[in-house]
Structures are given as C-alpha cells and as structure tokens.
Amino acid sequence: DMKVTQMPRYLIKRMGENVLLECGQDMSHETMYWYRQDPGLGLQLIYISYDVDSNSEGDIPKGYRVSRKKREHFSLILDSAKTNQTSVYFCASSLLQGKYFGPGTRLTVL
Amino acid sequence: GDSVTQTKGPVTLSEGTSLTVNCSYETKQYPTLFWYVQYPGEGPQLLFKVPKANEKGSNRGFEATYDKGTTSFHLQKASVQESDSAVYYCVLGDPTNAYKVIFGKGTHLHVLP
Fold it and tell me: What is the pLDDT of residues A65-82, one digit of tens each?
C-alpha cells in the first residue's frame, strides 16, 4: 500500500520554541518534499530532498531546515518558530513529477 | 517565468450539472501538465496527467485536453456529484527540474445535493 505518513497531525507551539515535523514513505522514492499551504497562497515548496543527505532549497526555505538520514524519512525543523509559520505542512514523495502527499500537519505558533 | 492561472473559486454547482475549471499556462518549454484534487482534511492527490497536445487525460469521470494554441488545459466533468466537492489544482511541471512542479492557486468546488 503506497503511503506517505506525517506526524504529528496537529501541533501547537509558542513563539521561539523548536518544532520537528516528521514524514515517512513506504515506496522507496528517492525524492521527497516539504510544502506549506496557506489560504490564498496555495502550495509553496520549502525544500526538496533528492536522496539521503542531498537536500535543496525550494521557493521559501527561510526559517526552515531539513534532515534526511534514511531514504524513507524526511524531517522539517523550525528553529525558534515564528507566528507567521502557522500553516498546514505537507510532505510528499515522488518518482518524478507525479507526487504522493501525506495528510498534512496543522501547526499553530502562538 | 513559468506559471499557471486557474478559475478563481469558489464554484458552487448542483449535483448532475457540468463542470469546467479553466486553466492556462505559460512556459517556453514543452509543457508537462497535471490535475490534482484535494479533499477536506487530506493532502492533494494526483487526479491525472494530461498527455500530449490534443490527447485527453482522464480519471474518475474528469477529463482534460491541452490546447497548444491557447496554452490551456481545462478540467471538465459532465455530471458532478456531491462527493466531488474538493479543491482542484492545475499543475505545470517545471521544465528545468524533473522533480519540481508549479501549482495553481486552486479552485474550490462545492456541489450541492
């Protein structure tokens, strides 16, 4: 069963706290992604990972970093979260341009 | 730069009526085009890839054909159902990177029973 999982599904943090969002996939896809989705802005690409320890900035990487130590796991890290990072975050994986998305993590930064 | 522009929603239809979501694209390269759908509380999922110009892509009763002359690939369905209520995204593959795509802003469809 081809699946992308995300943990946690909901998270509330205070400004300045660190945030770790985790993503897993069971399809052995080399390429994984982090997006955020905001009303009126659609989906914005934060980072792409082409394989283990091979990560590349997307369109809005500022304030985020990523870690990929195993092909099936991809983490998004917010060091000292800001209120404008309140959003829904989606992880995805793909063979090429057709992507499989996870169910999302709704992050609220107070 | 490359871009996609789609019907601004929300679009509200009654069950059994037809749907068209307009989408146009700009690119200097040969386009790779997709439609994605996002149901409430879920991530986007690939609806289908639109193949070559003048060929039809389709899935679950939805279809789209891309017109090279007008640089458009409108999404259509002859008879919508309440379960089709979702956000629909037209997507352009980034010709400079096989792994990147450009999402449109999305069109929110409400289908009334």
Answer: 999 999 999 999 999 999
